[in-house]
Design brief:
Low-confidence stretches: none
Oligomer: single chain
Strand order of the largest sheet: 1-2-3-5-4
Distance between the termini: 74 Å
Number of strands: 5
CATH topology of one domain: OB fold (Dihydrolipoamide Acetyltransferase, E2P)
Number of helices: 1
Helix content: 25-40%
CATH architecture of one domain: Beta Barrel
CATH superfamily of one domain: Copper binding periplasmic protein CusF
Mean pLDDT: 82
Strand content: 35-45%
Order of helices and strands: HEEEEE
Structural class: alpha+beta
Radius of gyration: 19 Å
CATH class of one domain: Mainly Beta
């Protein structure tokens, strides 16, 4: 009988943990929204997983245009990105830190 109770407690804790992870993930996705922000790359620091972007207003973070440093969650996002590139990105705030979770280089069509 005690074994059943321990298994029930483990099952309950597992379900609770999974629920918390799902809620946290939903919050991050909801906070990031689906809208990309345009910006110009000022610096890429691959070893530190950082990118400096001069950006337009980031609406989902209620942030005015400025230049700032972001951490990237995946260094693969920085592949082929260099200072001077025009990019579109999605940023999120987690625990007071700003992260770029999506990043793509804008294509220069020569119309500028």
């Amino acid at each position: 009988m005690i074994l059943t109770s321990i298994n029930q407690i483990k099952r309950f804790l597992t379900i609770g943990f999974v629920s918390v992870v799902m809620i946290a993930n939903h919050h991050a996705v909801a906070q990031s929204g689906d809208s990309f922000t345009s910006g110009e790359v000022r610096k890429v620091d691959l070893p530190q997983s950082k990118i400096t972007i001069r950006h337009e207003e980031i609406k989902n973070l209620d942030m005015p245009p400025m230049t700032m440093i972001f951490t990237v969650k995946n260094n693969a996002l920085l592949k082929d990105i260099k200072a001077g590139d025009h990019v579109k990105f999605i940023a999120t705030s987690e625990g007071g830190k700003l992260f770029v979770i999506q990043l793509k280089k804008e294509i220069d069509d020569g119309s500028n």
